[in-house]
Amino acid sequence: MSKKEAEGSFRKRKLDISHTQQIREERDGNPSSAVMLAFKTFQQELDTKHDKYERLVKLSRDITIESKRTIFLLHRVTSVPDVEEVLAESEDKLDGVKLKIKLIALELIGEDLYQYHRAFTPGIQEYVEAVSFQHFIKERSLISLEQINKDLIFIEDKKNEEPEGLSSDSQDEKDKPVCFQVTPTDYLLGVADLTGELMRLCISSVGNGDIDTPFELSQFLRQVYDGFSYIGNTGPYEVSKKLYTLKQSLGKVEDACYALKVRGSEIPKHMLADVFSTRAALVESDEGIS
Amino acid sequence: MLAVVARIVWAAHRIHSFLSIISTDSAPSVWFPNRATEMSVNEMFSGIQGFLSADQDVREDIRKVVQGLEQTAREILTVLQSVHQASGFKDIPSKCQRGRELFCTVRSHLGDLKTKFPAEQYYRFHEHWRFVLQRLAFLAAFVVYLESETLVTREEVTQILGIEVNREKGFHLDIEDYLSGVLTMASELSRLAVNSVTAGDYSRPLRISNFINELDSGFRLLNLKNDPLRKRYDGLKYDVKKIEEVVYDLSIRGLAREPGSGGEE
Description:
The structure holds two protein chains of two kinds.
Chain A: H1 3-28, H2 34-75, H3 83-107, H4 117-139, H5 145-150, E1 153-154, H6 168-175, E2 178-179, H7 184-207, H8 212-231, H9 237-263, H10 272-277
Helix pairs in contact in A: 2-3, 2-4, 3-4, 4-7, 7-8, 7-9, 8-9
Chain B: H1 2-16, H2 18-21, H3 35-81, H4 92-114, H5 126-148, H6 154-161, H7 175-198, H8 204-220, H9 228-234, H10 236-252
Helix pairs in contact in B: 1-3, 3-4, 3-5, 4-5, 5-6, 5-7, 7-8, 7-10, 8-10
């Protein structure tokens, strides 16, 4: 097909399109009819909703990325002499994440939290994971939902972009602190992910010749696992799914502890890491210590 | 209602009580587990467990009411389905009347549903009644169309069902559910067009055709995402096509009284 022909056919097609549009417009009848007017308002309503949803998804993604980075940073705790420094840095990072969560809270003022829940739940779970990981490294305990939510109460500074006295409820919001409430389900899912991180922490600390941490971790993980077993299938479906991974993590940590107990005293430190990469199934070794 | 709120408040209280168990004032040495925390892990999980089982009880109550709603919706549908039979065209008004009577039952069921959960948590349990609400919106729209051949407004649907339009006021009809109901009605009308020709009513398809075309152009104003509503909307063009074929068939055979779209002899 020559260029000219192509152009010609293109022009023809354009003509066709405008022609069909004309037909359509004729067929559509009156653009200011009741139905069309109704749908115009629906269009606005849906667009507003979708825009808000997209904004929340963006925020959630940022929160996920930042929280993941915080977790990686915290994993360096085992190999860095100065623990405090790492913790301080993670604190800074988490403060940044909290600011993002505050933006989510602002988006949700006057909205039903659950209407947009799916937009931001991944980010919130990741944040729970990061904040509980940090808390564990600091305190050796599980952070409570209550405490996470307490850290997410933001005192609202006067919004400058809003002129004074817009409406009565915006006045109320100025007096009220903005707060974000993590739902128990998000908390549970975040804690389930935390166990995976703790398993990694355990293996890497063994590699560094730390003999105490694995035992501590296995104890803690056992408690968490018992907790999840206690909830069992009363919880939502996602929680039951995570239970399987949790069990695997616990198994790895328990195997590590077992290996340390039985043979730890005989293996040179630098070879410890190799032992855990292969599952310690050498139970029938005749070096059983009674 | 009060019982539900009490349960949820109780669960929240349980969760709240963890705070008192955790002692954060004495920072434990980093490498030794704090004995007090052993309790707290269990405590935390049992608190959350309390919350979850309260949540499940609420869902159970909602499911029971929704079952009743679905039953009534099926009854209404059965009444209205009879317009598709050849004999059914004669007494459409009486069928609509019967349908409207059944909507009283729907109203009382929905009133019951409102008491089962805290009003501000509508979207938390939304998926339980989403399907049936779409179905009811469709039925209401269908009744209104059969009576007056106009598109039901959102306000009318909420009046028929005895619920609110705005989220702030309580149990409301979500816009997407309303639109889904309207789309279901469109496919029902394309069926009706075919069956009305069979029954010898040649003017109805033309009216339905105009109505559906207007609906189609209305929907084309919306910017839909890739959600269930979009998938349903994608089916609308087939309904439009089907009705146009019926109109075409009528006009080439000179059965249409009014000039149809195309097919001038």
